[in-house]
Write a structure and sequence with these properties.
heterotrimer; A alpha/beta; B mainly alpha; C alpha+beta; B: mainly alpha; Histone, subunit A; 3 helices; 2 strands; C: alpha+beta; Arc Repressor Mutant, subunit A; 8-stranded mixed sheet; 3-stranded antiparallel sheet; 17% strand
Chain lengths: 489, 95, 498
Amino acid sequence: MLNQLTISELAAKFAKREVSAREATQACLDQIACVDGKIHAFLSFNAAAALAQADAVDQLISQGGSGANRPLLGIPIAIKDVLAVKNQPLNCASKILGNYISPYDATAIEKLKAAGAIVFGRLNMDEFAMGSSTENSAFGLTCNPWDITRIPGGSSGGSAAAVAADECIASLGTDTGGSIRQPAALCGCVGLKPTYGRISRYGLVAFASSLDQIGPFTKDVRDSATLLGVMSGVDRRDSTSVPEPVPNYVAALDGNIRGLKLGLPKEYMVGGLDPEIKASVDAAVKQYEKLGAEIVEISLPHTDYAVAVYYIIATAEASANLARFDGIRYGARVEGNDPIELYSKTRGAGFGAEVKRRIILGTYVLSSGYYDAYYLRAQKVRTLIRNDFLKAFETVDAIVTPTTPTAAFKAGEKSGDPLQMYLSDIFTISCNLAGICGVSLPCGFTQNPKLPIGLQLLGKPFGEETMLKLAHAYEQSTAWHKEKPSLKF
Amino acid sequence: MASAEINVKYVAHLARLALTPEEETKLAAQLGNILGYIEKLRELDVTGVEPTAHAVPMVNCTRADEVRESLSHEEALRNAPRQANGLFIVPKIVE
Amino acid sequence: MEYEAVIGLETHVQLNTKSKMWCGCANQYGSEPNTNVCPVCLGLPGVLPVPNDEALRKTVLTGYLLNCEIPRFAKFDRKSYFYPDMPKNYQLTQYDKPSTANGFVEFEFTGAGSVNGLARVRITRAHLEEDVGKSTHFDRHSGLDFNRAGVPLMEIVSEPDITSADMAYAYLNALTEILHQGGVSDCDMEKGMVRCDVNISVRPIGTKELGAKIEIKNMNSFSGVRRAAEYEIARQIEVVKRGEKLIQSTRRWDDVAGITEQMRTKEDAHDYRYFPDPDLMPLAPTDAWLAEVKTKAIELPLARKQRFMRDYQLPAGDAEVFKSNVALGNYFEGLARQSKNPKAVANWIINNLLAKLAELNAREKSEQEALGLEAADLKLSSFADLKFKPEALLELVNLVEAKTISSSAAQQVFAEMFDSGKAPAVIVQEKGLAQVSDTGAIEKFCDDAIAANPAPVADYKAGKAAALNSLKGQVMKLSKGKANPALVGEILERKLKG
């Protein structure tokens, strides 16, 4: 089953000419045909185009071309519907974009293609990446491969489910407040949110510009390191991308974490944390000690304010970012007698409930008379939150927490109460506010039903090397990442 | 938690969002609830704290004044809901 | 009760960069609609702005030219409002941290509010933002062209220091002259590169409180601004005198009807929801960068005019010519520095050189048009193309000064050097134009003239002094223009009186 392999396993088979890129791509397409009717991770995919890319790779290999500088040669990678791929649809799981086709590639996509990847498919998500369950897609639910009555998390739910169900070798998602790490945790895969500025945001349809980052979903930490290495680096088209050198992330995965200090924030092990999750995280911490890491209790005193800060900053930025969806230059238009009527009708019909909610909230907090009370204050508290982390990182190399307070919940369970839904992001949000990096990896399962549990590691700004080294060491000392959902529906 | 008032109709107009009366009522309640939660930020003393607008502190990130290729005219108008004579067409703009 | 007007101007000027503000599309006027556009300036999903460093440089340079402070921290904000010509539905602009602030423009003005023929208008700020697309209105629809969207646009906000329509006009001319000469903007009004909003209020003379501010939007000619301001001031005074109250509002100038009219009011017009753009990092100009920009600052036109009048004793009219035509002024100054008689140099340039050049240009134009060239492709000669070296003009002035040639001969020499590029001395020699100061020769010419013209001689002797001129003319004719006119006069007088 080629579709079940990791990038490194598949690349090794290509190198030995044991399999062709066409076979690998076909295996993914077959799996989609087999399970996606139930999972619904994909909004669309062009099988013929994917196979054509694969054939081009096979031809290159047969002509003696090597994958030396192309670490993703022949690897089928599927893409969240929020990233622009030239000549492919781009909908952000919203009705408002209509039949929009992107005329350009996101920088991250350009880099994947340059590294030889077979970029295919549009993965489901919460509309405009706003949500934690993928229930906010305008095009239907995505189901958790471990239990199709449950949500896969969000907003990158399709990206997590597709990897967990082996419908692709890896996928891309985006993370604004946990939208990679949370679904990775709920679907049992590895999800990485790089440091803000590590990967260019050009071609990522902005939800909250100061928080958004692109990141990979993979089946193990090594693949995550590989994709990070391919996509990282400063981009002339994104002035917030940081000119920091890109290390060899894969080479850092040497398993030696002896003496590294791991911070355990006391504020994260309280409140509505599910006991099974707590037990798994405690066990993971013990495992780290066994592996030679030193555990240090730390405090991130402003943790409790993160959700409030996030919902001001993210919605304010989103209210402006989403203003361009107006039916004038692209997208689904509802005609009106004048432009104002056209705008209101187009946007009223095109956006779903959650997007409207956030646009209204974001518009409100920026409106005349409220800026200082909400937005400016939120920016100041953001400083306090960031300082909490920077201070902690003076004494520890990385921080370990649960990724989510509970395992995957049932579809519809929280969709009636937006605030409860927002509070489920409590462990992942601070990372985006502080601009640091984070990764979620499998660390166990709940018992009944069997649902994945995620362990979150948070690293210093541009500290992905150390963070991934820690994640890899734990992963390789456990077997969680090897477990697969039965996919028997 | 105090429930803040929000003039949904006014804000929806600013955001150019047509809402049904039901949506308005529902949003007012939900947003009141969320704003009530957000009120907790008032607990903190932020005197003297600098606001963070960007997660990574950098300045002067600019590009050189160089002309690069534009989209072809066809590509530029490819997604236009309505076009004529190379222009994007909208209902008449009245000032 | 007498009323006075209080006027402030917001002037929008397109910067003359090669590319747009945030993307690499050409900043070019006159292209086919929607051809200088890319995902960034069309506001397609996923794009990001990256600031053009040359636009920032030109903004700060403007700050220096307008005597502004250059803050060490500036940033871009999003100004949200929906309009079909604005792709993102927010405009990127510098809201509370502009790149320049607190300057002034000084200019020549003689009306009310001036001191010694000068007026000063304080500049609140000159900040950088982006232009929007262009809409064309049809019967029931409007069409949008985004070629202009994202062109760097500078907004120069004046304090309400302007007190009349004429002063507004003089200010705008002075401002655009500075920006044009300073290399910041081409300021081509025909191409819409300068537009302004005029804020006008009136108040009883002697009071300090400002009246209701009424804004006339989107003016694209300075004469329009003058007419609109004249109309609006009179209208407001009339309204107030009737005892009615003016309310803050926005009006449009109807150039054909010659009136301002109320625009459809937007109740939310001022809720722009500004916040710092998270896609753009702040600006913190360094000492080295500022110093480099400062080296580009030109001498201001007014200072230059004043200096020309002072250093070269030029009359205001001559200095004005050299102020408004920088190339001509530079040409003049290069020679004036070496000349004992800069005024004579100025005369030659303004009276002769300009005329000759205009003549040549007219000829070139008709020749090239006959060949089928379009107006934009015409190649007309300028100062850089003159056939003679600048020093030749100096030489010519010296020849006249030294009385080597007469001024009428000098005209001939100039015409020849303009056409052939030959040195004046060579021309004088070739054409034998050297002035005759040999008394013997002149005496002979005088005797001949007296003998041949008994009537003027008689007139002169009868007391008609003017008759001498006629005799002088005859002598000059006999000498083929080469006789020294002063000597001729002396000798004639002596002979006739004697």
